[in-house]
Each structure stands twice: as structure tokens, then as C-alpha cells.
Amino acid sequence: MGKNILEYNLMRKKVSRNPFQVEVEEKLGRNDDCWCGSGRKYKKCHCSFDEKLDDYRRKGILVPPRRIIKNPDQIQGIHESAKVNIAVLDYLDEHIEEGVSTQEIDNWVSSITKKYNAVAAPLNYEGFPKSVCTSINDVVCHGIPSRDEILKDGDIINVDVSTIYKGYFSDSSRMYCIGNVSAEKKRLVDIAKQSLEIGLQYVQPWRKIGDLGAAIHEFVMQNGYSVVRDIGGHGVGLEFHEDPWVSYVCPKDTGMLMVPGMVFTIEPMINMGKEDIYISDDDGWTVHTEDGLPSAQWEIQVLVTEDGYEIISY
Question: Tens digits of per-residue pLDDT, 124-164?
């Protein structure tokens, strides 16, 4: 579930001691227990890691706060949540078709999530009234399921599923082409998916997150499309929306440093026409393209590892 940049910045102000600078973090002695909760001595756990971060910080580079670095137990918990998220989307792969209402999709998501003793993260999140986001054709994201909204031949739809399982969050979405989709729409969906593969090439430890955003933006523009500026990816795992903010219209060599243990989404929203969007006055959630042309988005959740990345949810 993408995050509006204004809402995201407000969220950061709530959770950060200092949203505009480095967060103040406790200094540990070498024989103290490590801050990550591993139970190991600091000198044998994250001491050298923190020293490396300090080197980058002194160079003026934005480094991640400790609160978003996941330890192995947390990563395992996020994996378990993602298994549910993936199972829900796999079910939709087999059942979504022409004639289905978006409310039926919501019912499926709710039922399967409960079957796994999990919780649908979007339900009641900041007032969102349903368990899943269903975004058809010119709806960019955050579409609200309805009994009156029936999938038709030629539609494209993004279904964005987010799960809480034993306190851990997972988040991913897929595009579905309903019936006989036009070549123009099909190409948009394909380019949106390919953009994830482009971005993944730049998910490497000790590289800046802006590199993946810039690469996605360049690829999409070269293919004749635009990228939504105001809604992007986000950290996720211990909370629904964490640092870092993931932009897909940023210059390379900018943004937060990616380090092992970070978990975030890659979810560029690709418009067939212009990048301009608006939020529906009717519900305050549904985001449309300004020009009425279609939009497509795939979302994956990734973990930065010691030597690259791991896809957590897809």
C-alpha cells in the first residue's frame, strides 16, 4: 500500500526524535548487549556495522536509524507474514476474472487472511474501510472495493494486499489483465513489471536508495510513460509504513544508504499519460490519473542482504 509523500513526512515527524537530521541513538560499550536484540555482545554483533555507518554519516550521507534494521528473528517473522500475503495473491491469480466485483475480491482477501490467523493491514488503517485496495484502469492506487464495481473485459486491475501476522507486516501487489486487454494496456502492465527488475539491479548494501529510483524513472521514460511523483514505496516490517521513503523520480546518488537488514517496498506507479494525479473527493482515498489514462503498478517487498537482496513478498 503506497504512501503519499505528505502523509509519509507527517508520519516521520511522529516517530523520529529529529525528522530532519540524524536520530539520537544510545552509545554502547563494546561489552554491552547489542541494540539489535540478538543477545550478543555489541563488539561481536553490530559494533563494526555502526562504525561503518558513522563513516558514511560524517560524509553527510543519510544513514538508516537502528529502529528500521531488522534482526534475524524479525526477518523470520516478516517472512511468515509474507507467506500469507503471497497465498492471498496466489488465490486471486486463480479466481479473478470478468464478472467478479471488487467487493468479492475484498471478501476473498478477508476470508483467506483470517484462515491463516492473520489480519488484513489496510482494514481501518487511517480510516480505510476495506481489507484490500483494488485499482482499475485509471485508478492509480487505493481503490476501495465495491459491490457495484464489476470487472469487465479489457480492464486492468491492481490488487494491493498487506498482511499483519503475529505483529509483522508484509506488503505486495499484482496486476491482472481481464479478458481481451488492448495491446496498449498490456504493454503498460509489462513495462511496469519490468521496471521492478531494473530497480532490483541497484538494491545493494552500501549503495543509496536513489540509485534504484533513478534507474526505474529512466527506464519508464525511455518507454514513453510517466512515473507518479507523490506516492512511493516505504519501509515495512515492524510497522505498516517505516523509513525509508522510496521515490522513483529522484536523482541517482541520493536518498538513504541501503544496508543489510533494511526491508522496503518497490512499487512504482506507471501512467500511460502524464504523471499528474488527484484524490477522489467522494471517498478521500481513491487516486486517479488526471488525464483519465490507465495506470499500472506491481509491488514487491525486499530485504537488503550482505551481498544484495532477497524478495520477501511479491
Answer: 999 999 999 999 999 999 999 999 999 999 999 999 999 99
CA distances from 185 to 34, 151, 181 (A): 51, 15, 6
CA distance 196 to 39: 36
CA distances from 103 to 111, 150, 151, 158, 298 (A): 12, 9, 11, 14, 21
- Owner of C-alpha cell 509519509: 8
Look over the chain and give the mean of its residue pLDDT values, rounded to a whole number. Answer: 93
**For the segment 283-308, what is each residue's pLDDT rounded down to a tens digit?**
999 999 999 999 999 999 999 999 99
d(CA 46, CA 145): 45
Name residues whose C-beta falls within 8 Å of residue 31's C-beta, 6 or more positions apart in sequence.
41, 42, 43
Q: What stretch of H or E contains 221? A: helix 210-222
Residue 287 near residue 141, CB atoms below 8 Å:
yes
Q: Give pairs for 86-92: CB < 8 Å, separation 24+.
A: 86/172, 86/313, 86/314, 87/112, 87/116, 88/112, 88/113, 88/161, 88/163, 89/159, 89/161, 89/172, 89/173, 89/174, 89/314, 92/159, 92/174, 92/176
Give the pLDDT score at 10. 36
300: left (phi over 0), alpha (psi -120 to 50) or beta: beta
